[in-house]
Structures are given as structure tokens and as C-alpha cells.
Amino acid sequence: MAATRLDVDFVRAQFPAFAEPSLQGQAFFENAGGSYTCRPVIDRLTRYYTQRKVQPYGPYAASRLAGEEMDEARTRIAALLGVETEELSFGPSTSQNTYVLAQAFGQWMQPGEAIVVTNQDHEANTGPWRRLAEKGIEIREWRIDPDTGHLDTGDLENLLDESVRLVCFPHCSNVVGEINPVTEITAMAHAAGAFVCVDGVSYAPHGFPNVGRLGPDIYLFSAYKTYGPHQGLMVIRKSLGDLLPNQGHFFNGGTLYKRFTPAGPDHAQIAASAGMADYVDALCDHHGGPEGKESDRGMFVHDLMRAHEAALLQPLLDAVRDRNAVRLIGPSDATRRAPTVALSLGRNAGDVAADLARDGIMAGGGDFYAGRPLAAMGVDPVLGVLRLSFTHYTSRAEIDQLLNALDRVL
Q: Dihedrals φ, ψ of 89, to 5°?
């Protein structure tokens, strides 16, 4: 019989950090900044550096195996995301990938044409696009509700017309946490003749999405926040990728996954990224998930993760939403958001995070490169927010540890 609940003990056994003596007694609540790394990724990275650290794709065994491992990572992760293998690119970071894409759009678009951005975004998916104003591109801002941080699709509709070429927005914000309706927004943009770029950095750690089913033309996220190495993963659908000017070496222009990575690839980290697919497979099999398509197996694991996270998140939201002098940013319903909880406290959030460390709570305080949404909601960027972010490997005991610590500091 298939398991209906996430086996957290099994999950935590896949992460060496939970057996590390120096981390015992500490609960990790800054996962939005970067997750622990799963064992399959560590094992693959170790094997690559030990046995394959040569130029890949050569005729000798070590080189051939190195190239095969890189290809395996692209093939398996693309299948997990429900897209074609050639539509997945690797780059040094999501910020860098977005910057390269912005350069391509800047060359392709004409002065007077428009891009829609939001003020809900982390700076990575808004700053590079806004800079295109210097090339005569019109930048239109889809603004959040200053009280809730919510993006209203009705407001987007008022921004769309025949001059808009691209709509950029987050799957969820790294401070607001609310999950935006990607498929609905994509359909609206496509109906207006625009392409769509989704920043999935804050969503993907909570379950790899089926990008093919969601429908955007670009989807970006970071492997180091999804239990992997420090790489940026970038889906670019072929229909768009073939239109944009090549940003790589001229001789790579005919290969979609090389067109938007100007620098040489990090061979070892790309190869190690296949460990993320290993991990999803292990969870799927352990919990009695489906055989067959990688994307279906990925969605089974996605749903397991989300259900576990929502069950742990609701008590945290309930504990903070009605506190005096605490402002919860984003929805108070766990099913509508990721477990990334930002609190405006009216005092320096960094100091509060340091105080929480006394109770073994690893959290962060600051603006988290989300100065625009915080300013729009009237949060003093100097004071920042306390951010408490977790993922599916968090246990109920760690939530209790956090709640006890919050009782003391708040």
C-alpha cells in the first residue's frame, strides 16, 4: 500500500547534515537561503572529483564517463520537470542566468516594446529586466497590495497590450510566500502575445514543478536550494529559445542548452545534479509512488512534500499572526503559501535572529534582496524582517523548538 504521509525519518537519513555532530541540537530555519545537500549529490560530486575530473566528452574512459554523467543530469532533471532535454540549461546561478536572458531580450526587442515586472520579486528576477529601460524598453510594474503583498491578476490585465513582449513574476516571493497561479497568469500573457518568465527559486525547494504542465516559456531555480550543488537551472522552451540571439560562443549557437550560458559549464556540479533526481526517485519508491514518467513520479513526491510542510506550517502561522508588534507578511493559510515566513517586528530582525541562535534556531534577519516588496509594504529595510523558512526534511520536534524560542524572543 502506498504511503500517505512523508516518512521524515527516511528523509532525514538521506541528508548527512542530520548526522553531523557539530549541527546536533540546532534546527535549520534558513532554507530559503540554501538547503542542506542530499547524500546522492554529495556521492556523485565526490565520485566525479575522484574518478572523472578530466575534460569530458573525450575518447578515453574517464572522459567518456564524465560526459555521460553530465548528460544524465540534464536528461533526468528535464524529464522530472516535464520538458525536453535540450530545453534545460545549467549556469553558475539564477541571478547570472537571468542577467544573460535579459541581454538576449534586450538585443531582440525594439525600443518602445514593453516588459512587465513585479515589485514582489527577489531582485534577481526584476533588476536585470529593469535595466533594459536604458535600451528604450518600457518597463511596466505589476504592483502588490501594500497590506497583503498579494499580486492581483486583474491588475496585470490592465498592463497587457500588444506592445508587451515578456511578463516576469515569481512562482512565490521569498518574503511574501504566497503561491502565484502560474498557469492562469501564463495564459493571460500568452493571450496578449507575450512570453512568460517565472522565478521558481523560492518554490522549487518545496517540490519540483511540472514546468511543461504549468506552461511558462522560462522557468528558473537554484540547485543549491533544492538539495544540490551551486548551480542555476533554467528551462527555456524551444519556441522562445530559437527566437532569441545566441549569448554563447558562436559555435554553440545551434545547441539550445548552450545558447544562454556564455561561460564554460561546471562539469562536476552539473554531473552531481543528477543526485537530485536520485533523491526524488528514492522518495518516490520508498513511499510506494507510481512507476513510469519521471514528471508523474516527481509530482507524487511534490505532493508528499507539500502536505508535510503545510501540516507543520499552520501551527507556526497561527502562533505569530495575532501577536502584538508582529506583522506576518503574506497569507496565514498554509495551503496558499510556501513555508517561508517573514515577520516584521518593528526592531532589528538581524538582532532577533542572533538571539534565536541561543536556542539552537538557525534563522536569518534582513531584507533578503527583496527590498522592493518590503518597501512597498511599508517595512523599514534597515530593520528588515525575521525570516523562518523550512522544507520537507524539517521535523515536528524542530517546529516545537522554534515555537518555544519565539515565545522567549517575541
A: -115, 150
**309/137 Cα distance (integer angstroms):** 41
What's the rounded Cα separation, in Å, for the pair 225 and 253? 29
The neighbour count for residue 288, using CB atoms within 10 Å, is 11
Domain boundaries, the chain: 8-37+294-409, 45-277
**CATH of segment(s) 45-277:** 3.40.640.10
- Which CATH number applies to 8-37+294-409: 3.90.1150.10, 1.20.1250.20, 3.30.70.120, 3.20.20.140? 3.90.1150.10
Q: At what angle do helices 274-286 and 39-47 cross, to 10 degrees?
A: 140
How remote is the C-alpha of 252 from its chain's centroid?
Answer: 27
CB neighbour class for 22 (10 Å; exposed up to 12, middle 13-18, buried from 19): exposed
Q: At residue 115, does pLDDT exceed 60?
A: yes
CA–CA–CA angle 17, 170, 238 (5° rounding): 100
- Exposure string of 342-362, with b = 16+ CB inside 10 Å and e = fewer, is bbbbeebbeebbebbeebbbe
pLDDT digits (tens, 9 = 90+) for 258-268: 999 998 899 99
Q: Is the pTM of this model over 0.70?
A: yes
DSSP state for residue 172 in the 8-state scheme: B
